[in-house]
Each structure stands twice: as C-alpha cells, then as structure tokens.
Amino acid sequence: SSGINAEYGSPVVKWFWEVAHAMTDEDKSKLLAFATGCGRAPVGGMGEMRFIIVKNGGDSERLPSAHTCFNVLLLPEYSTLEKLREKLYKAIQHFEGFGMI
Fold first, then answer.
1. Cα-based angle 27, 56, 39 (whole degrees, multiple of 5)
2. What is the largest CA-CA distance in the chain?
3. Which active-site residues does the annotation give?
4. Could you give the CA distance from residue 58 to residue 1 in angstroms, rounded to a whole number?
5. Is the alpha carbon torsion for 36, 79, 63, 89 positive or negative?
6. What is the pTM of this model?
7. What is the pLDDT of residue 27?
8. Are strands 52-55 and 72-75 parallel, antiparallel or unpaired?
9. What's the distance, CA 12 to chain centroid?
10. Residue 49's pLDDT is what?
11. In which element (H, E) is residue 74 found?
12. What distance, in Å, lies between the first and last C-alpha atoms of the chain?
C-alpha cells in the first residue's frame, strides 16, 4: 500500500491532523509516544522530526498502529472523522510502550 502522507487531499490525513490539533497536551504526548516511542519532542524541536503517515488498508475496525523506530503511523482509511477519532483515542489510551520504567 502507498503512503497517504503524500496524498495531501486524503480526508484521513486531514482528519488525523484535525483530531491531533484538538487534543489536550497530555493526549498529544500520548500520541507522540504511540507513534515514536517517546512522549517528548526531540532536542531540536518537532520541526526536526520526520513523521510519516502510511495507509494501512481500507476502512476497518482495526486500531491504528505504528513503527516507532521510524516514526511511522499506520492508519487505516477510516470512512468517517468520528471513526478515526474513536480508533485513534482508543489506541493511544491503551498504549503500553515497551513496558519499561
């Protein structure tokens, strides 16, 4: 499957950023940890970080997933904004990371 990051007209990418921008700081930190493995911005700031959203199949009941080593968010092409919001929040709220302290 091709990356949807390059498809700037993709509703799923627009919805993702709409949801992300509306998050509380705590939820933004959880999203960052979910997608990158670290809940903090890199030393050089967020502008220094490469973040990729990749299409992970069509509309689905699956939750988003991530390749944290590469800052890649795998996002199904959900059919609605509400579904994307629900699945993304569920994924970041139940994210355990590597289980290390």
1. 25
2. 40
3. 69
4. 10
5. positive
6. 0.82
7. 96
8. parallel
9. 11
10. 81
11. strand 72-75
12. 35
The pLDDT, as a whole number, for residue 7 is: 52
* Tally of residues, the chain: 101
Instruction: Determine the 3-state secondary structure of 16 from DSSP.
Output: helix
What per-residue confidence (pLDDT) applies to 10? 85
Q: Which residues of the chain have pLDDT under 50?
A: 1-6, 100-101
SS3 71: coil
Amino acid at 90: K
- Which residues are CB-contacts of 56 (< 8 A; sequence separation ≥ 6)? 1, 62, 64, 65, 74, 75, 76
Looking at residue 14, what is its pLDDT? 93
State both tokens at 46.
């967020």
Rounded to 5 degrees, what angle do the CA atoms 76, 32, 14 make?
45
Per-residue pLDDT at 8: 57
Whole-number Cα distances in Å, 67 to 9, 20, 22, 80, 96: 24, 18, 24, 24, 14
